[in-house]
Amino acid sequence: MDRLEYADAVAAQITRMADAIRGHDLARPVPTCPGWSLRDLVEHTGSTHRRAAVVAGEARQERLDRASIDLGLPSDDAGYADWFAAGAEPLRKGLLAHDPSTVVWTWSGPRPVVWWARRQLCENAVHGADAAIALGHTPQIDEAVAADGVSELLDNLPYADWKPRDLTGDGERLSWQSDTGVGFLVTLYPDGYTYEPSAMPGEVTVRTSTAADILLLMWGRRGYGDYSVEGDAALLKRWADNSTM
Fold first, then answer.
1. What is d(CA 245, CA 238) in angstroms, rounded to the nearest whole number?
2. Hey, what CATH topology would domain 3-140 get?
C-alpha cells in the first residue's frame, strides 16, 4: 500500500469503529485490554490519531506526548462516537501534508512520514478488533491489512523498548502459517531476529485460518491454545512472553 491508500484506509476504519461503538455502554470492559473499559479504548485510540495528525501534519522532529495535546474530549459518553469519528479527516490530511519521504519523529527513531500512515492503519485494525470483541462481535480485518500489520509489528518490535525483551537465539525458527496462504518465518540470532514471508515450517509452527488470526495472535489478542501448534512450544512461549506489545 502507498501513503494515500494507508490514509484512506485508516480514515474508513475510524468511521467504522465510531459507528460500531455508537449507542453502546462505554463502561463495558475490553477483555483483550485487561483493566480497560470501552471508553478507555476509544480515548486511547482517538488520542493516538490526533497525535499522529500533529506529528505528520507539522513534520515534527521531536517527541510529542499525547498529554500535551488538547484532545477536546466530550463531556459525556454520548459524544464519544462523534469525537472518535471527528479524528479521521485531520489524520488523513496530516498524513498527506508532506512528501512521503519527509523524515519525522517516531517512537522507533526518525522515519519517513509514511511510517505514521502505516502505523495508524495497523494500530486501528487491532484496536478495532478490541472493540468488536468487547461488543461480542467477530473482528473483521482485511487480509492484506492483516498481513501488512504482521510485517509492521515485526519491523517495529525491536524499537518497542517500554519493557525488557529477549528476542534473540541461535538460529531457531518460528513459523506462522495461514490457510489463506499468508505465512511468516522468524529466525532468532544472538543479536536479534530476521523475518520473511515464507511457507517454511520452523522449530515451532503455528497454523491458523487467516492472516488476521496471525496478527491478533502476535498482538496477544488471541491465545495460542486455540490454534494448531507443531513443535517446540517452549520456544513459542518465550517469543510470546517477550514480544507482547
1. 14
2. Four Helix Bundle (Hemerythrin (Met), subunit A) (1.20.120)
Separation CA 53–CA 70 (nearest Å): 13
Per residue in 183-205, pLDDT (tens digit) is: 999 999 999 999 999 999 999 99
**What's the topology of domain 161-243?**
Nonspecific Lipid-transfer Protein; Chain A (3.30.1050)
H-helix segments, the chain: 3-21, 38-57, 80-85, 88-95, 114-134, 143-156, 211-218, 233-243
Residues 171-195 as b or e (16 or more Cβ within 10 Å = b): ebbbbbbbebebbbbbbbeeeebeb
pTM here is 0.96
Q: Are 178 and 209 spatial neighbours (Cβ–Cβ below 8 Å)?
A: yes
